[in-house]
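Hello support,

Our group uses your service weekly, and this is the first time we've seen a run hang past the timeout. The protein is Protein GrpE. I'm not sure whether the cause is the sequence or the server load. Input pasted verbatim:
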Amino acid sequence: MTDKMNEVENDAIEKQEEVSTDSAVLDAEQETISGSDESLEETNEVIDEKDAKISELESKLQDEENKLFRVLADFENAKRRATLDKEALNKYKAQSILTNLLPVLDNFERALAVETKTEEAQSLMTGMDMIYRSLVDALKGEGLVEIEAYDKEFDPNFHQAVMTGSEPDKSSGIVLEELQKGYMLKDRVLRPSMVKVNE
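Update from on-call engineer: The timeout came from a worker crash unrelated to the input. Re-ran successfully.
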């Protein structure tokens, strides 16, 4: 009987040890679980911080890219403006010289309009006419173009009305007389024609 009691006691002790071992294992597992929960929370916090940092860096990168594109666009615009300015400078480089020579052309035309009576005067006029024509050809080579005015519709972009007249057989706004020639340099007006316009 003592053997049996010892056996029962031993069984009870073993069971108690098993229960305490199981309890210790459960406690350890709970600690592991609670530790892993804390570790998971810490990991989530680290991930959130990294996500925030990545978002901030992406935003800064986008801002820098936008600045770069604006600078490139400004550069392209400045380059295009410089090219257009250079083309305009080349196209109209003779403008100041031609403007200064227009009164010379006017004086030549007035001189050539004078009536000559002697042979010497006629010979002189022929020489002046040759000089005038060579000057006109040289100026045309630089892009000088005479504005047509007589018997044309008045255009304020090319004509300057200084007088009006009345001719019933012509429609209103027609140029009756050109008082001073107008000139253009390629597509730019150097001097408008001074004209008399029909009312």
